[in-house]
Every structure is written in structure tokens, then in C-alpha cells.
Amino acid sequence: xxxxxxxxxxxxxxxxxxxxxxxxxxxxxxxxxxxxxxxxxxxxxxxxxxxxxxxxxxxxxxxxxxxxxxxxxxxxxxxxxxxxxxxxxxxxxxxxxxxxxxxxxxxxxxxxxxxxxxxxxxxxxxxxxxxxxxxxxxxxxxxxxxxxxxxxxxxxxxxxxxxxxxxxxxxxxxxxxxxxxxxxxxxxxxxxxxxxxxxxxxxxxxxxxxxxxxxxxxxxxxxxxxxxxxxxxxxxxxxxxxxxxxxxxxxxxxxxxxxxxxxxxxxxxxxxxxxxxxxxxxxxxxxxxxxxxxxxxxxxxxxxxxxxxxxxxxxx
Amino acid sequence: xxxxxxxxxxxxxxxxxxxxxxxxxxxxxxxxxxxxxxxxxxxxxxxxxxxxxxxxxxxxxxxxxxxxxxxxxxxxxxxxxxxxxxxxxxxxxxxxxxxxxxxxxxxxxxxxxxxxxxxxxxxxxxxxxxxxxxxxxxxxxxxxxxxxxxxxxxxxxxxxxxxxxxxxxxxxxxxxxxxxxxxxxxxxxxxxxxxxxxxxxxxxxxxxxxxxxxxxxxxxxxxxxxxxxxxxxxxxxxxxxxxx
Lengths: 316, 244
Description:
B: mainly alpha; 9 helices
């Protein structure tokens, strides 16, 4: 059975996840700080650098952590301390560990039996086929690659056909083919009305998959919106480049006339240029250098780290 | 049943069955050498096996087996992060505690019962009747239940459950309880010694009186109830970040 052949869930279209003024702290460390959002059917990306609070948010939605302040509601009810909430929730944790002494089938079958499904064996087989693991399902999990472990975890989390699926860095360790397949599965499940939340620290992973993106930085919700809007925000943010040439002063003077440039600084290490239009500037640098007969030896962005990108979203 | 099956598989993962087998046959090795490698006198068998069961099986093998299986029932899953796969299922956490505890206790009792039976089988004679074996089997079963109650909690409460359990076994059960009269009223080892005599119907008779049976039942019940309640409370409040 393929990903798209699962029956759409009529009831999941009504279901929502509400996170309202939620904070979570561990002693003096604030992991999540006053975060509010509501999720309905479709795929939502939870984006942010490591340590941003993404996993804490997912675990609070999954009822594995209680908020220190605020409240989390899944289908109108707080999931923490309520085992029945897990009939609606499927969680794929980030940690690679699975019961490595079981075979893939035994693991997924055990998950199905823990949900007291009427035909646990059939449900397990369906979930295993969904993630394309029917071939190696009778091998012990300890013999699986990282990507295979990820997929068997996904099968275990989806075996009861949950309306809310929470995936913590699900693409870790998957090869491109496995990644494409998983993207197709998740896209299909999201289109059927399930609430799917995928945490990632890589924006490109969510490309063509997440309709909405929540950006977390240092425990705060830095930005939220449609994927394309968030991507544009990240692309159009001010960029700083360092340029080295055989005549920095002449090139700097010429670049000052470029409308895409709003800051030029001459340093001992070259020219530092700030721009809001990265693409335009990189094209114009070549043209300006040619016109002024200056030989450019190096163009290097100085603030491309994830942290600097996310920090911009917080401070804008 | 699925929680029990998963616990069973987990407890016997990493070749722990070899350890269990070694523990189960150890008393038999001693009885074998006693019978065939030394001067075996029929009249001494009772005293030899009573002391072997008391000082090796009940005092050492039973608590060590219970430490291994009792602390691993939660400790293993907390350590490797697989506990999450049980917690995100529609299963009450008290149910998880009860089932895991029972599986650990039954495995411990089964391993030590084999140890008791093999030793008894090797030396059995008119003095070493079935009542003798029955006395130690009852003591083993109840001892396993009490120890696993305590060690299940340790496995969930701390990452060093195994070490703390071993220290408890050595210091409390085998040093303090043997030397401080007041402490033996709380010692599971002392309870099992009394239980063997009580259930042995005269086939097991210790030279000095042990803990009265009323104390064994009352204190044992309290210890078990407190240990299970504490484990259930701990798991009910268990949050994933604790293991990360």
C-alpha cells in the first residue's frame, strides 16, 4: 500500500492543536518563552537552530512535558497525563534509539498492540509498507541503518493512524531517495487533513512540504507564516560581504553608488559591504569591478551561519 | 500482555540469559563438589544445604538477580531512551509499572527457584524432603517480589540504580541487618530466612529464631506497597527531559 492510499481522516479536519502563552523552564533555564500558535490540518515546519526549544514544544504537544505556564490543548484537551490522548497523537522522537533487540515488524506490531487495534498485524503491515520497510522488516533493528531506523520509528508512530503527527528532525540519516519517499508520505498525509508538525534546523528540508513555518529562536517564536514568506524574510535580510581586491578604495567608492548597497566600510582586511538585495549586489560587483578595472580576488558572506539568520528574525 | 512481552524481551536482551543461567546453576556446582569431591556424609547434607541456601542463595544470588532484573526493567529503557515508545501509547502508567514489576519478579523468582531446586535435587534424601525445597521456594518467591518492588523504583528514580542496589544489598542486607538487631525487622533477607522456616513445615529449622511471621507479613506488605506506590508516582510524573 502506498502513502497516498491511506483513507483520509474526516474527523482530523476538525482537530486543532492550540499552544497558548506557553513557557517551559528547567530551574533557571528558560527553554520555551511565552509561545502562542494554533495548528490545524496540513504540514507545519518548526524551524530553528539547535537548542531553540523545538523539541520541548513537540514534547509538550505530545503530553510528555507539562508547560510551566500557559496551556497546550490537543483537540480541546490537555494531553499531559491523559493516556487516551495518544489515540490521536503519533510522535517520532529525535533520538535514534529503538528497541534494537526486536525486528522491525515486532516493534511496529507491538506499537499496534499497545493501541489495542482490532487487527494489529494488518495495521502493522500497512504502516510498514507506508514507509517502504516491508523488505527488511524481519531483520533486527540493530542491523538497520540510521535512515531505516527513522522509517521504522515513523511506522511505529503512524500505526494507529493518528490525527496529529509530530516528527522531531525526521530526515536525519535518510539518504536522498528515502527522504523523497518520506516527503511524499508526509505531504500526502498532510493533504488528508492530519496535523503534521516537523521540526528541523534546515529550511530547505521543509521546502515544498510545509505550508506553514514557525521559527523558534532561543525559546521564543521569532516568526510564523507561510513558507514562502518566511523564506523571503530570510533571503531579503541584510547581508554583509567581505570583498578583497587589488584596489579596495577605488572599488568601495564605486560600490557606494550602487543602490543595492547601504553600507561600505574600508578595513585592513578588505571592504565590508552591507546590502538588502543579495542577488543584485553579487551581479553588480562583477559589473562595477569590470567598469573600474579593479581585480576582485575574494567575495565572502560573513553572516551565513544559521544562528545569524535566526537572530535576524528575532531582532527585526 | 504487550508490555509484559516487551519487558521480557528487554530483560533478556544483551545476553542476560547467560547471566541468569550462571546464577541458576551456581548452587548446583557447590552441591556437586560437596557430593562428589568431598567426604559426603548423609547426615551433614541438611546442614550444608540449609547454610548454602541461606548464605548464598537467599543472601547473595536472590538480591543480585533482583537488582539486575529489577533495576533494568525501567533503568534500561530510561538509559537508552526507549521508554518514550511506551509512554506515548494509550496505556495507563500505573499499569506499565505493575506489569514491569511483575515480569521482573517472576523472572527473578524463576531463576532462583531453579537454583534452589537443582541444589535440592543433587542432595535430596530422607531429611531433605519436598517440604525443605518448598520452604525455600516460597521464600524465594516472596523475596523476589519484595526486592523487585524496591529495585524497580531505584531503576526509575536514578541512573545509578544498579550500583545503589548492589550497595544496598551488601551494606544494608548483609552487614547492617546481620549485625544490628533492630535493622533486621526491615531486612528482606531476614524475611526470606523466616519464610523458609515457616513454609518448610519443620523441614527447615534455624538454630536461632528469626523475624516473627507477623512482622514479615506486615513489614513486607508495607515495603511492597510503598515501593510500588513510589514507582507509580514517579512514572506518573516522569517527564521526558529527565532522561535527556
